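Thread: "does anyone have the structure for this chain?"

Original post by V.I.:
We have the sequence but no experimental structure in hand. Need at least a predicted one for the grant figures.
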Amino acid sequence: MNKVKALIIGSTAIAFSMVAIVSAPMAAAPDGSGPTKRPFAHNGQRPGGFGGAPLISIALKHKTDLNLSADQIGNLEKVRAHYQSQVSPLHQQLQSSEKEIRTLLQQTPASLIQVKTKIQETEKLRSELRYLHIEALENGKSVLTQAQREQLRTIVRTQHEQMRARHGQPS
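Reply from O.Q.:
Generated one for you, tokens below.
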């Protein structure tokens, strides 16, 4: 029983750490905009070389460099707004579920059945958030031409290399 409790507590600690790692870049947005303005901050790589950055926001920030048309800008803004409207309630639900897990774990003895159920609920939310992230990225990429996607990859790579250099990390 103690091993199971230790496993659950350890797993929860890891889950909280992952949430903190993913949320920190969003919360520390340089423009002070927070997670609602920077929805694509993510530490994982995405297929096709896109990942680790708020791509649609970067594309819009570099609209001149990418030579985006007015239609493309409008479409990217729509994709971003749609994504934000979908994920905001899910983020709130996830935070609430994580708080409930912490509360359940403070009980002695903790109800493992309730904890397991709540963990499964949070994983469904994370899965939905991940899918919505991928959907938004794909919708955003579909607005860009192949040349613009390649230029965006170059911009993202350059920003990543500059960030690593500022933090003294090798590329």
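V.I.: this helps a lot. Residues 1 and 7 are 10 Å apart (CA to CA).
O.Q.: and The chain has one domain: 50-171.
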